[in-house]
Amino acid sequence: MRKALIILAFALALAPLASAHEGHAKKVMGTVAAINGDHLEITTSPGKSSTIMLNDKTKIMRGKATHKAGDIKVGDRVVITAADVKDKDGKIMWVAKHVTIGNAPATAPKK
Questions:
Q1: Which phi and psi (to 5°) does residue 59 adopt?
Q2: Which residues form the domain of 40?
Q3: Which residue of 35, 41, 94, 105 could cross-link 82, Cys pair, CB 3.0 to 4.6 Å?
Q4: 3-state secondary structure string, 65-96?
Q5: What is the total count of domains within the chain?
């Protein structure tokens, strides 16, 4: 029992260190609202907005085919896996590791 308590105490002591580093993954699903240079503005289903940066390591796919950033269009539905990184000023930004473009563009809901 004592050994279990020591292990638990050690794990709890290290837990803040595990969450203090960059690179946590986040999944964003939504529609491309705007494309501005190296970043995408994504509108998610609850109507919120996320800014996701693209870089030369971002893998962009539609189905099994590889695409380029220029193939992403406003109105495309996307699923993005992004990691948080700090910029040179210490501000957190999200950088896409993988972008999956939907096969059909989003359509407006029928009224």
A1: -95, 125
A2: 23-101
A3: 94
A4: EEECHHHCCCCCEEEEEEEEEECCCCCEEEEE
A5: 1
